[in-house]
Amino acid sequence: MNVPGFTGGMLDRADRLRHDEEALAAAIGNWQARLLKLHAWEPEVTDDGRLGWTMLSEASEEAEFILLGLDEGRPRFAAFEPAVGAAPAAFRSPTLLAALDQLQMGEAATFAAARSVLDWHARHRFCANCGTPTTMFRAGWARRCGNCGAEHFPRVDPVVIMIAEHDGRALLGRQPSWPAGRYSALAGFVEPGESIEEAVRREIAEEAGVRVGAVRYVASQPWPFPSQLMIACVGIAEGDALTIDTNELETAGWFTRDEVRDVLAGKEGPFLAPPPYAIAHTLLTEWARG
């Protein structure tokens, strides 16, 4: 299988250190400890597609360290700067898009973890139960309220991303904000009280007016903008008539396997493919293989 982007992380997440304050302090003081280089939460990337790292002393005095894990025993951290304020928008700048194209697979996974957890801290500095400011614990993987004692943990929002298949063709759509000509799989959040299969059927029906029967899972991917788990599926459509929800899509259409294969191979075709680091690219690749 074509490996989805932002997966293949190589760090030992070292959960054992998250519960041991003395061991965590020793990791922070370790001369081999390194801090992930981020500028407005965008990664610094070396010429060979690796993340940039620096000494922990480069962080501000107010910085709180989040343990990303161990690289062959060497501690790796990200820094949360409380004074920075709100989290950056989920919008991906041209600089970030260029960096994502350069990053090696496992490196992108480390960035995804850091970006998502930093975003969560920025958005959850106050207790959802009583509104009191919270403090970081568990090496940056949780926050605790000093007033009511509630503990809060980083959230991940499940999103289904899928193509409907009918008569050897795949249903793809496009949003008006995308680059001209780009089409991709349909997607939407899984709602409370809903299974993955039910979410796939509902989203395709809502966005394109197509009824789907059988659903099969293909792969998953963390998506750190801000913190989703993308669940890629293929649904078998009962018909091909489209009724497009223009609040969600600009347009949609059916594409043959040959058309999809040509586009993925870089040949001229009826649409532009999603970028390789997006799981929609993995999904189309697997579907095109039959």
Automatic annotation (TrEMBL):
Asked whether the UniProt record includes Metal-binding among its keywords, one would answer yes
Query: Which reaction is catalysed here?
Result: a 5'-end NAD(+)-phospho-ribonucleoside in mRNA + H2O = a 5'-end phospho-adenosine-phospho-ribonucleoside in mRNA + beta-nicotinamide D-ribonucleotide + 2 H(+)
- Write the Enzyme Commission number(s) for this entry: 3.6.1.22
Supply the gene name. nudC
Pfam family for this entry, one: NUDIX
Descriptive protein name: NAD(+) diphosphatase
Give the top-level enzyme category.
hydrolase
Is Metal-binding found in the keyword set? yes
A GO molecular-function descriptor: metal ion binding
Cofactor(s) needed, names only, are: Zn(2+); Mg(2+)
Report the family membership.
Belongs to the Nudix hydrolase family. NudC subfamily.
> One GO BP annotation here?
NAD+ catabolic process
Q: Where is each Nudix hydrolase domain found?
A: 154-278
InterPro entries, alphabetically? NAD-cap_RNA_hydrolase_NudC (IPR050241), NADH_PPase-like_N (IPR015375), NudC-like_C (IPR049734), Nudix_hydrolase (IPR020476), NUDIX_hydrolase-like_dom_sf (IPR015797), NUDIX_hydrolase_CS (IPR020084), NUDIX_hydrolase_dom (IPR000086), Znr_NADH_PPase (IPR015376)
UniProt keywords, alphabetically:
Hydrolase, Magnesium, Metal-binding, NAD
Q: Which PROSITE patterns does this one have?
A: NUDIX, NUDIX_BOX
Looking at the UniProt record for this protein, which Gene Ontology cellular component terms does it annotate, in alphabetical order?
Answer: cytosol
